[in-house]
Task: structure prediction
Amino acid sequence: MSSTETNITKPLFRAPDIFSGFPGLVAAESTRHGGVSKAPYATLNLGGSQDDPADVLENNILFFNALNVPFETVAKSHQVHDDKILNVQNPGRFDGYDALITNKPNIQLAVTIADCTPILIFDPVSKSVAAIHAGWRGTVKRIVAKTVAMLQNEFGSVPENCLAYIGTCIDECSFEVGEDVSEHFDEKYKRFDAVKQKYFVDLKAANRHQLVTSGLREQNIEISPFSTVLNNEDYFSYRLENGFTGRLLATIGIIDRG
Result:
């Protein structure tokens, strides 16, 4: 994963390696650095919270300018931890969708996170993209598998041609849950800690499984090595920061500069 840095230690965003080498494809995941928000949203808060809306807007403009993407081409949705998917025809702000897809150039899809799992997908054949927000509820509802299926149905995508990035989220050793949550997950993606009497769930692995069973090649999937909790100096974590924190953003789109 490559990065663009505001200084030598604080990258503004990181770009998945899996998508490098495709002219016009812009894909990135923000960090918490390089923005204007004040604590506890410091500094590059890109999503909804109790932060000053003017600061959030300025942060978004800073972030997308760094990607050389016009902010007016961005498509976002108010996310509700469900499995609804929108085929985006025009940029703008939507409501109630946790995954966005498009095959139109100059629409930059974006999802916000602060522990949940972002997944970006690119089909270089159909020139289609997807941005997915998968918390534990979305993961259980198989939003990733449903998004791959929708790419097939809407754009004729062949999963084995697709590339995917599973982004930075809460790591397995930090995602402590009760039985009410763990019961929804396959045994392969959870473990029981007898001392704490709690379960720990691996969201990255669970979503990777959905990509593979949907037909993506294992070698075409990149997984972020970072954690919102363990690397909290670089990423926002809703759980670790008790809800008083900003939002990260993962984005993907095809730019036609012609």
About this structure: Residues 7 and 175 are 31 Å apart (CA to CA). The chain has one domain: 13-170+221-254. The longest strand covers residues 117-123. Residues 53-66 form the longest helix (14 residues).
